[in-house]
Each structure stands twice: as structure tokens, then as C-alpha cells.
Design a protein that fits this description.
There is one protein chain. With about 575 residues, the chain is mainly β. The strands form ten sheets. Strands 7, 8, 9, 10, 11, 12, 13, 14 and 15 form a nine-stranded antiparallel sheet that branches. The longest helix is centred in the N-terminal third of the chain and has 13 residues. It starts with a helix and ends with a strand. About 50% of the residues are buried.
């Protein structure tokens, strides 16, 4: 193997080493709780700074490539670095200025791939029937202080209803990000794919979970630093002994979850992984006004058997891995039950087992004082959501399109590239489970647009996944993210719409429909309705439209229709 190949492998390891995401400069300043933040840029340790944010639970903040604060949000309002609400940055969901204040993970910031100045801002309203919204922040606006793009076509449009309070993000394998949410009263997690092409409104679904579907309402989800596992905390205030803590395997190439492992049956609000991915730390409530942090060792063949209490914490608090490699949480000391924490607690060596992890129930130097009550603080339940920085494609190629389209029993796979250089050939791979792939066709490089047909395949499987292997002339390989098609025998994929063409009311026959989205030929969303099997299109201009129906289980079906004159 050449030195270049060794170097590429080493650099690839660094890109996804244990410190790849939480130790990025973009994560160095946290906006936390009410009117305070935590700055990790000080070499001697984090220091407290003031913010303008008032919030109870989920929040998010992000810095630029130099570690300087850009903006922060509670999901309802977004503030610039000066603590001023952006000009179009209030009521981000259009459903009220308090819609996300009590959502476990109500805010999420995702840098837009291939953009140095744009960010997706996701907002999630509180239970029940949580709704997911998306805005775009452009830091070139308002004199470099940033503003919300009012022309973004998805602005104030609920991407999905019927969700729970769980939401986070993780980088994929190829300059992409997965945004993970959960469908209410089901066993379905949904992963929305963010790529340089844009936000894919058809999520990848995983039907998985160890506990009754009604307990997945609240509590955080977190990804491990190596992106190979996801932690799920189920929280129940009224029945804390029947909720659950579990870990799944995660495939960053496909966005799929698998292999649920139960850690405990009790109620857990917050949790996180150790930097080396080997430990889980999670908080459960054990008395009326107090919680306990537990450690689990994932290297054990039975991780649940390694449960070890470390010490007290706030009644309901999240735990977050800091850019210094330490775990932070709301401290029980001087707190008033489930909020108003005056101090943060800290786990100083989270890679180590048991007492060696150095659990510190309060760090009195990290004080967040209340302005009128000296016995209280201003840290609330939540800590900032994780940041997922898309990692640039190492190849000198930009994949601008990669789609799979069904026609009769055939699947047609198409891709388009820009800046093709040093690529020898492409290999299209197919899977029926999203994990085990076979090569179906090799295509020589040298064009800008490619298309192949996978003949007589749609009646052979319920699900079909395709991915593209890009092979350089020196043998280096990069894999694309996977794309998905339903097979012909997949019941959730079958849909009948009528009449077509339609003058006024269009009917949809397809199981239980949670959401219907209609887009015009440019891709602009023109109508969204929820929990109905029909939609009035009488006010739409005549022409061709695309209808997407999302089932209650997260499955998706699409069809075109014509609005008559």
C-alpha cells in the first residue's frame, strides 16, 4: 500500500475519531437554560457568559470555524451573536411563540452541506402530535449577523405531524447528515436525509424498539461519537418504572437502525455516550426531587448487568458530552426539583469505569445565579442539541443527483455529477435489507449523466436499497448514501387516488394517512393536510402536481395527478 493510501486512511480515521463531532470548534459555545451560556474556548476551563434566551428544555447553538458564536435558538426564536432576535426570527413554526419551549429536543441546527454561510434550523413542537418545521438561516443577511430566509419554500410548513419530542442529527458518510425523529404511538424512527442537493422530504424509516409504543413520547436520543450507535431515553413522569433505556446499532450510510439492546426498564430523561463510545451515562428519577446518574458498559456481553450508580443529579436533566471530553449535567445541589439548577455537574473521565470516571455532583465554579433568589439557578432541563457537521467528500467529484425511479417492474437508477476527475468507474449496488449489498452493474466514467435499469426486480422484494460506489483510478473508493424504493408487494406503498384528473376533491385510498403533501412541478409545496383521506384542490391552478402520502407507520407513497381547468 502506498504512503498516500496510508495517509488517506489515517485522515479518514481522524475525520470520524472519537473527537470528530463534539470537539469541533462549532461546538465550543453552548446557549443553555435561561439567559446563560457556557464558553469552552478558555484553555483553563469553561466559563459562563450571558445570553438572551429564555427556555425550559430543548435548545441549540453553533459557532463558526473560528469558534466564535454565530446564533442560538430555542426552536421558537433565533438570536444572533449579539443577543438580538433575527429580523424574521420569531415564531419560527407559525404555531405560537411557546410551541417548542417544553419539547425535550425542540431545536436542532444542521449546517447546509457545501455552503459556508447557510444552516437548516429544525423546530419540533411539544407533545402530543408534535410537528416538525424547518427554516434556513443565511449568515450573509443582516450585515453578517444572519437572518431567516423568508423565501425558503418549506418555511412555516409542517414537514411531519404525529411525532414525539425526540430529535437529533448525525453526519452520514458522504457530505450528508441524517435528522432523526420518532413517530408517536408507533415503533417507527424516521431519518430525514440532508445532502448538497437539499432536504429529502421522504424519510428513511426503521421499525424498532424494545418497549410499548406509548412510552416513546419524551426523553432524548443521542448518537455515539463514532456514529455507529444511538441511545434512546424514554421518560415518564407519572410512571417512572415503566419507560426504558435502550441502544441501537446505526448505519450512517443508510440512516437505518437495528439490533435494539435494552439497558433498563425505568424512566430516563437524558443521556449520552463516552468519547470512546464504550460507556453510556443516563439519568433516572428515583425520588420526588432528585435523580441519579448511572453508567453502563457497552463492551460487556450483557450491558444491562453493568448498571452502576455514580451519584445524584437534578430530577430531570440532560447529559451532554462537552468539547473538553467531559460529560455535563444539571446538578442536584441548590436546585428546586426538576429545573432552576444553580450549578452543572460533571464526569471528568467518562471513558473509565466506575469510580475512576471521577463523578462530580456539582462544579461550583460553573454557577448560573438567579437574579432574585440566591438559592436558585437558571439552568433548566435541557442542554444544547448535538451538532452534526457534514464531512466533505474526499473525491474531486460532486454528486448532484442520485435517484431510483420505479417503472412497471423495473427500477431505473440515475446519477449526475459535476467536476468528475480521476474517477475510473462506478458500481451500482443493491440490497433488500439496507445492510447486505451485491454489485449489479459497473459503469465506466467519462460522462456527466448516467442511467441504468434494474430489470424485473420490483416484485422480488418489499424494499430495495441502492448505493453508488465511486472508484478512483488509484483504487480509492467512496460510497454514496443509500436511496430506497418500495417493492410492488409492499402494502404501505400501494395507493389509489381518484378522480384523476380532478376538479375539486381528490380522494386517497391508502390505509391510515397521517399527512398529505402536494407540490407543483417546480417542487414547491402548495398544500399540506393531516389525518385525512381526501384534500380539496379546487383553488389550485390547473396543471400537473405531485402528491405524497405518509402513513401512520412512517411509510411513504407518491403519485402524480392533474388539476383540471
Amino acid at each position: 500500500m502506498t504512503f498516500k493510501n496510508y495517509l488517506l486512511i489515517f485522515l479518514s480515521f481522524l475525520s470520524y475519531s472519537s473527537f470528530a463531532q463534539y470537539n469541533t470548534v462549532q461546538n465550543r459555545k453552548w446557549a443553555v437554560g435561561d439567559f446563560y451560556g457556557l464558553d469552552f474556548s478558555n484553555p483553563s476551563g469553561p466559563v459562563v457568559f450571558p445570553t438572551a434566551m429564555d427556555n425550559a428544555e430543548g435548545e441549540a447553538s453553533i459557532c463558526d470555524g473560528n469558534g466564535d458564536l454565530l446564533f442560538y435558538t430555542n426552536g421558537n426564536t433565533v438570536w444572533n451573536k449579539n443577543g438580538t432576535a433575527m429580523p424574521n426570527g420569531t415564531n419560527l413554526t407559525g404555531t405560537g411563540t411557546t410551541a417548542t419551549l417544553s419539547t425535550t429536543q425542540g431545536a436542532l441546527i444542521v449546517p447546509m452541506p457545501d455552503s459556508a454561510h447557510k444552516y437548516y434550523l429544525f423546530s419540533l413542537t411539544a407533545v402530543s402530535n408534535c410537528k416538525l418545521f424547518c427554516n434556513v438561516i443565511d449568515m450573509n443577511l443582516d450585515g453578517g449577523l444572519g437572518n431567516v430566509e423568508t423565501g425558503f419554500p418549506l418555511r412555516l410548513v409542517a414537514l411531519r405531524s404525529g411525532l414525539t419530542e425526540k430529535m437529533t442529527a448525525v453526519p452520514g458518510n458522504n457530505n450528508d447528515v441524517w435528522v432523526m425523529v420518532h413517530v408517536e404511538n408507533t415503533d417507527s424512527f424516521l431519518a430525514y436525509h440532508v445532502t448538497p442537493i437539499g432536504l429529502d422530504l421522504v424519510p428513511t424509516g426503521s421499525k424498532i424498539g424494545s418497549f410499548p409504543v406509548n412510552v416513546y413520547q419524551q426523553g432524548v436520543i443521542k448518537f455515539s461519537p463514532d456514529r455507529n450507535k444511538m441511545l434512546n431515553c424514554n421518560f415518564r413522569a407519572t410512571n417512572p418504572t415503566a419507560a426504558g433505556l435502550e441502544v441501537f446499532d446505526f448505519d450512517p450510510a443508510t440512516g437505518l437502525l437495528s439490533n435494539a439492546v435494552t439497558l433498563d426498564n425505568n424512566s430516563y430523561y437524558g443521556g449520552t455516550f463516552s468519547p470512546d463510545n464504550g460507556k453510556v451515562y443516563a439519568e433516572t428519577t428515583n425520588t420526588l426531587n432528585a435523580g441519579t446518574v448511572f453508567q453502563y458498559d457497552l463492551s460487556s456481553s450483557v450491558p444491562a448487568a453493568t448498571k452502576m450508580p455514580l451519584g445524584p443529579c437534578g430530577q430531570y436533566t440532560d447529559l451532554k458530552l462537552g468539547p473538553d471530553g467531559k460529560v455535563y449535567f444539571g446538578a442536584l445541589v441548590s436546585s428546586a426539583g426538576y429545573s432552576n439548577y444553580k450549578y452543572l455537574g460533571r464526569i471528568n473521565h467518562p471513558n473509565l469505569a466506575g469510580a475512576l470516571c471521577n463523578f462530580q455532583d456539582s462544579v461550583t465554579s460553573l454557577v448560573f445565579p438567579h437574579p432574585t433568589n440566591a438559592s436558585l439557578g437558571r439552568i433548566q432541563q435541557g442542554l444544547p442539541n448535538d451538532i452534526a457537521i457534514p464531512v466533505a467528500n474526499p473525491l474531486a467529484i460532486k454528486l448532484t443527483k442520485f435517484t431510483a425511479v420505479a417503472k412497471d417492474l423495473d427500477a431505473y437508477i440515475e446519477w449526475q455529477i459535476a467536476g468528475e476527475k480521476d474517477i475510473d468507474h462506478y458500481v451500482v449496488e443493491r440490497s433488500t435489507d439496507g445492510r447486505n449489498y451485491i454489485n449489479i452493474q459497473s459503469v465506466e466514467a467519462g460522462r456527466t449523466f448516467y442511467s441504468i435499469g434494474d430489470k424485473n426486480i420490483l416484485d422480488k422484494a418489499l424494499h430495495l436499497y441502492y448505493r453508488l460506489k465511486m472508484v478512483e483510478q488509484n483504487g480509492n473508493i467512496t460510497m454514496s448514501a443509500a436511496i430506497h424504493l418500495f417493492g410492488k408487494n409492499h402494502e404501505a406503498g400501494e395507493m389509489l387516488i381518484y378522480p384523476n384528473p380532478v376538479n375539486d376533491v381528490l380522494h386517497i385510498r391508502r390505509g391510515v394517512v397521517a399527512q398529505i403533501t402536494i407540490s407543483d412541478i417546480t417542487g414547491k409545496i402548495v398544500t399540506v393536510v393531516y389525518d385525512k383521506d381526501q384534500v380539496n384542490v379546487s383553488e389550485l391552478p390547473s396543471g400537473m402536481y405531485q402528491l405524497q402520502a405518509i402513513g401512520a407507520d412512517g411509510s411513504v407513497a407518491s403519485a402524480k395527478f392533474t388539476k383540471a381547468k
